[in-house]
Amino acid sequence: MTIQVEQTIQQVEAIFRFNQEVGRRFAECGIASTGELLKLYEELREALARISLPELEWARQEAIRLQKRLNELGDELQHLCALKAAFEIRH
User: Fold this and answer.
1) How do residues 3-49 score in pLDDT, each as one tens digit?
2) Rounded CA gap, 62 and 39, in Å?
3) Residue 75: helix, strand or coil by DSSP?
4) Which of 67, 89, 91, 87 is nearest to 79 (CA)?
5) Contact 65, 71 (CB under 8 A)
6) What Å distances lie between residue 6 and 13, 33, 81, CA to CA?
7) Would you say 52 and 63 are in contact if contact means Cβ atoms under 8 Å apart?
């Protein structure tokens, strides 16, 4: 019976140490407790609930179109730079 009690105490101590380590890691991220983490989770869920998936998809597609256009513009500017450099070479 004494061995079981000692094993139980060791298990409880291990869980307690683990809990302290989790708390330390949370604190490194600026989170004071698991309660605060759950509150942040709820706030995130509420904030995301205010944005519809179609709105997010529209914004994503617009970003893709903009990225494509900026890449095209970058290519055009690169060609202009090469053309300008070619004209500036003295023959």
Assistant:
1) 898 999 999 999 999 999 998 999 999 988 888 989 999 999 999 99
2) 32
3) helix
4) 87
5) no
6) 10, 29, 77
7) no
| List of residues 6+ apart from 40 with CB closer than 8 A | 31
Burial of 16-49, coded b for 16+ CB within 10 Å and e otherwise, reads: eeeeeeeeeeeeeeeeeeeeeeeeeeeeeeeeee
**C-beta of residue 34 within 8 angstroms of C-beta of residue 26:** yes
Residue 3 Cα distances to 7, 13, 14, 78, 86, angstroms: 6, 15, 16, 77, 87
Question: Whole-structure pTM over 0.85, yes or no?
Answer: no
